[in-house]
Amino acid sequence: MKAAFAVISCFLLTAAGSAAAEPRGWVIDRADQGAAILTYDGFADKGVTYEFTCTNNALIAREIGVTLLMDPTDGQKVGDDPGSAMRPGAAVMALFTDRTKPAFVTADAKPNLHRGWDLTINLPLDDPAVRALPKAKAVSLMTTGWTGLAELGPRASATLSSFLRSCGPAR
Questions:
Q1: Is 130:124 a contact under the CB 8 Å cutoff?
Q2: Residues 70 and 84 sit within 8 Å (Cβ to Cβ)
Q3: CA–CA gap between residue 5 and residue 166 (Å, rounded)
């Protein structure tokens, strides 16, 4: 299984490079003055949004509307239309930066209301990819399907760093 993920990782890195997008919108929102939510809509043309929230000890990363998933254990594709069933090995995701290697973890998968899937992972705040975010120049929520790479310019990096300061216990 590790070998399959290594092969997929190489494929996705290539796919991510070709799908690189200029950040159009890293936005911090405070839902009802509660926890901060960081949203990236730079892949809106693909129907995909990234959403990040925090707890006292974890970063919750969600990719909304991901499509073209496949199960690397048997090569079977996952349908994107409403009513499709998730295949067990396809529900994985990794937070990837230009400073870290992807480490796939099991994701909570829910059908998206329009098309595709919403995948969510919880990563401890001391996870290497989470710790690399403030200095990253690019970030991706890597899946077994469509994967994009969001480049981080100075304004996007400042927004991301501001969001991360709100995560976890007082530092």
A1: yes
A2: no
A3: 33
pLDDT of residue 169: 58
User: pLDDT tens, 102-159?
Assistant: 999 999 999 999 899 999 999 999 999 999 999 999 999 999 999 999 999 999 999 9
Distance CA 164, CA 54 (A): 8
Q: Are 73 and 135 spatial neighbours (Cβ–Cβ below 8 Å)? A: no
DSSP structural state of residue 99? T
Fold (CATH) for 2-165:
Immunoglobulin-like (2.60.40)
Q: Which residues pair with 148 in a beta bridge?
A: none
CA-based nearest residue to 16, from 58, 48, 38: 48
| Residue indicated by tokens 């976890």 | 168
Closest residue by Cα to residue 128 from 165, 93, 156, 101: 101
pLDDT tens-digit series, residues 39-81: 999 888 888 999 999 888 899 999 999 999 999 999 999 999 9
Q: Of 149, 133, 153, give the one whose Cα is nearest residue 141.
A: 149
pTM beyond 0.85: the answer is: no
Cα–Cα distance measured from residue 9 to residue 124, given in angstroms and rounded to the nearest whole number:
22
Q: Are 47 and 60 in contact (CB under 8 A)?
A: no
